Amino acid sequence: MVKIDNIELGEFPLLLAPMEDVSDPPFRALCKEQGADMMYTEFISVEGLIRDASKSVQKLDIYEAERPIGVQIFGAEMDSMMRAAEIVEEAQPEVLDINYGCPVKKVVCKMAGAGILQDIDRMVKLTEAVVKSTSLPVTVKTRLGWDEKTMFIEEVAERLQDVGIKALSIHGRTRKQMYKGEADWTLIGKIKENPRIHIPIFGNGDIDSPQKAQLYRERYGVDGIMIGRASIGNPWIFRDIKHYFATGEILPPPDIHERVKAVRQHVKHSLEWKGVKLGILEMRRHYTNYFRGYPGVKHFRGRLVQSQDPDELFHIIDELEAHYANEGIMTI
Questions:
Q1: For the chain, where do the domains classified as CATH 1.10.1200 start and end?
Q2: 26: CB partners within 8 A, 6+ apart
């Protein structure tokens, strides 16, 4: 049984990675239904939290059906991180996660996210301060290093464990790589072999099929897998991996009816959580992923992203479903 502190996650948990503008409550609900064992919020700016910025505070919304869930924060200043940890604790998630992996320039230039990989001592001090300022279990998500010359993740894992983190998720790329090239899990595997390490180690990066999940599970010995980009438009990946682990069988892909059902639910919850205007606007990025590969889908996608009326939106979705069902194009 894998545990983060006293939180039981099953024998080999599948985690939904925190993703900005993706892992919000509407999307998390779909992933939970399809088997995600633990999920994380979008990453939240500590400066936004302590200034009570509405966008940051809204990201603290947690629903009972989502649990266990972790709230992920990012920042670079010790006082702000500690104050934000206190705010997060009031939201009562199961876990507080610190983002030391975001490679985006506007985050990195402030020495937050993956920027702190340039100063490991500072990373350790910040983490220790957060651990001491909250009763929540603290976890960390990070990368192998800043670049190929500074892949100190083995040292980082030991030092962060020593100051009290309860689990570590590692993306198998450096900050310099961004999301390019193939993720290298070799060092993640070495950390699992380190006799000093006793906290759960979760691997992240490039897991996009049940077969790859099984291969990496066996090859690198991780305690669980964190899935990010491969879940966008495909929350069924959690179901598919678990089924493959249990049976060795590959499930057929979701048909057009399953996809439309998921999209309708996603849209409905987005409208409820974000309001009509923002809910419609922020759903637009998802349609391509849900219906990628369907012939002629560009016509429907164009109408979906132009629509500003909920009733019209659902009507177009119904049209899309009927079109492909009538054409006999059920799966891609």
A1: 256-326
A2: 265, 266, 269, 270, 273
